[in-house]
Design brief:
372 residues, 12 strands, 38% helix
Length: 372
């Protein structure tokens, strides 16, 4: 379908209420969230979508990891957690919420496992049939989850992150590269993949509209691979130890018509070929990465959440004359909003979108560019 040209009436603001009592203003978009986000992942956007936030984040409390990680988004307003509140994940590892940082961490002290070989005897895989799927469906189907929204379920702990949760970081890093440990990591990841597929299959079947179509449109899967300067492990290790299991998972999800986005913190440019081999549709690099280089090198194979570069900070830009702000937005749009090689906007740089002139000009210019 040919994208219609930009209409200035689209800049008229609407007031939306995504949660009771929480109101936001948005443009008069010509497509609803489901329609446009689907096109974004199909690489046919009408405008520059904002990664993660244009979707409806879904982290139901039925999955223990969401409670353990203190991120529950379902039913209504986000669940609030008390400082130092402790909750177990699906494997019984205890996480402690730290209000000052707004997140949870595995409680320090004795690791759940001292060595990966212990997993055969000490790791109990959850019985997901005991989770209250019917109660969660009643709470969310047709209320929090709606057919005109693009519903993206966040999965908090992936493969290497699961090793970290069980072993703590140092032992996890050794286990994934040590030849004596790798056999046991492979066997654990094989069974872990089986579990993740069962969970996602149940999720897709549980959250359905009256017409039988699943409300779940995409997965946002967490697995951090890098530090500020470089990956935690080499691309060859990643290709051997992680990629095959991720690929089995993404193949399953794609077979269910679910898009797959990887959340992986760190400077992970060297791992991008592995993200592609693993079947991910999209990735949002943190700001220490060069999103323009990533877009130039891999933007035809992976949907990249880009961000403005070579511009003043959002604070400084916001204090500049309006035309300078609009010029910066146009420059960004002309750089990465290209028909046939689309990107989307990185939520790590959301501060620029708090500048009204920048947000407006970006929407307008991206609409113009993508409709060419």
């Amino acid at each position: 379908m040919k994208i219609p040209p930009f209409d200035p009436k689209e800049l008229e603001l609407q007031t939306l209420e995504p949660f009771p009592g929480y109101k936001i203003s948005n443009f008069s978009y010509p497509l609803n969230a489901y329609e446009h986000e689907t096109l974004v992942f199909q690489r046919k956007p009408w405008w520059q979508a904002t990664q993660a936030t244009d979707a409806t984040m879904f982290t139901p409390s039925i999955v223990p990891d969401n409670v353990a990680r203190a991120l529950v988004m379902e039913g209504g307003m986000p669940r609030q957690f008390a400082d130092h509140e402790i909750n177990p994940d699906m494997f019984g590892v205890e996480w402690e919420y730290i209000a000052q940082v707004g997140g949870s961490m595995v409680r320090p002290g004795k690791a759940f496992l001292e060595d990966i070989e212990e997993w055969y005897d000490h790791v109990q895989f959850p019985d997901i049939d005991k989770w209250d799927w019917a109660g969660s469906a009643a709470k969310n189907n047709g209320t929090y989850l709606q057919a005109d929204k693009f519903n993206q379920i966040w999965f908090q702990t992936g493969f290497f992150e699961r090793l970290i949760a069980l072993l703590e970081f140092e032992n996890a890093a050794v286990a994934i590269i040590d030849e004596d440990s790798q056999e046991h990591v492979h066997k654990f990841f094989e069974k872990l993949t089986d579990l993740y597929i069962r969970i996602f299959d149940r999720i897709i079947e549980t959250y359905k509209a009256p017409d039988g179509k699943s409300y779940v449109n995409a997965v946002f899967f967490h697995d951090d691979w890098g530090s500020q300067k470089s990956p935690f492990f080499s691309p060859s290790v990643c290709a051997e130890m992680v990629v095959p299991y991720m690929r089995r998972l993404t193949d399953f999800l794609h077979g269910k018509d679910v898009f797959c986005e990887l959340h992986s913190c760190g400077n992970n440019y060297l791992q991008i070929p592995n993200m592609i081999k693993a079947g991910w549709d999209a990735w949002a690099p943190q700001l220490m990465n060069d999103s323009y280089k990533i877009y130039d090198d891999y933007g035809d194979k992976l949907l990249i959440a880009t961000f403005p570069q070579d511009v003043p900070s959002a604070e400084d830009l916001g204090a500049m004359p309006e035309e300078e702000i609009r010029k910066a937005a146009r420059s960004y749009a002309d750089r990465v909003c290209v028909a046939g090689k689309s990107s989307f906007y990185n939520y790590y740089a959301a501060s620029y979108l708090q500048i009204p002139a920048f947000k407006e000009e970006l929407y307008k210019q991206s609409r113009i560019n993508y409709s060419k």
